[in-house]
Amino acid sequence: MQEFFENVARYPRYLIALVLGVFWNAIEPLIPFLRRPTTAIALISALISALIFLSLTIQAMLGLSVDAV
Fold first, then answer.
1. pTM of the complete model
2. Are 40 and 30 part of one and the same domain?
3. 57: domain range?
4. What's the pLDDT at 6?
């Protein structure tokens, strides 16, 4: 039974390694673009725009609205 709990205790570490690996493989090809200021600004702007778009889309899908007072 002890072996079972040791095995289950490894899963959070595996999950963290998996998520970090996915993020690293997604970001690594973009690193050369950050060396030039023009492409860095464009890349950061695109990232911020994508996050705003995702946020607004999720809010619309969930029916959340921000009402001005």
1. 0.60
2. no
3. 36-69
4. 86
